[in-house]
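B., you asked whether I could sanity-check this one before it goes into the benchmark set. Here's the sequence:
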Amino acid sequence: MSSEQSSNAAADYIKHHLVHLSNQDTPQTNIIDFSYINWDSVILSIVLGGLGCFFLWRAAKKASSGVPSRFLAAVEMLIEFVDKSSKDIIHNEQTRKLMSPLALTVFVWIFLMNAMDLLPVDLLPWLWQRITGNHHAYLRVVPTADVNTPLALAIGVLILCLYYNVKIKGMGGWMHEMLTAPFGKSPFLWVPNFALNIIEFIAKTVSHGLRLFGNMYAGEIVFMLIAMLGGAWMASGSVGFLDPILYIGHILAGSIWAIFHILIILLQAFIFMTLALVYVGQAHDSH
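And here's what the prediction gave me:
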């Protein structure tokens, strides 16, 4: 196989794995196109969300005053950690009654969606192709590597921020803050103040979602590049000097990146949860 053919095959491999199972026959080419529904992200998000809720429900059902199992001990540590983070950031007790369980759910949900990146790149797409009988069937298995999922979660956090701004300050108090902060109360500054506050809400929401998306998308690409090392070894069809190097490189690189990626998976779930608490906590502050 020539170098040009190899590069074309590698490009086709990555392009295929970056296309979603959607409601349209043709792959999506525009970044924003509301006519597309990425069914793989939707279905996997729902399944993993249900799985996370099931684990938490099982832990709550098995909780007792006796010596906890390892699973229960891990869940208790996680709950205590999230509850402490919530108390440190949000000082309103009534708000914490909603936000603490929600933060726990968000952390577990995002962790499970991120953890799909640890599965072999071709495993679920290959199974899906076998089920459908279509060799060119598309399937992406990391919902958080789809920009729609993190942005949808970030928009949910934005809605909570708006709700608590109105609940805590009242509509009049919140609008007064939107018009007078941060530059001052002069009527000439109302428009710049309001515009700046709107931009702040939009910027926080977009950065909140894109931070998670960017990290998971980059991790997915790295796993695809590592998988191509194994693909190059299998496609060589001969036993040469480079063949065992490619195979060993594939195993070592995949293992090292997977171990490192576990930290990224946890860290991104923690960052998203913490920022959600911070943004809701800021809704309680007066300027």
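One thing to flag: The radius of gyration is 23 Å. Otherwise nothing jumped out at me.
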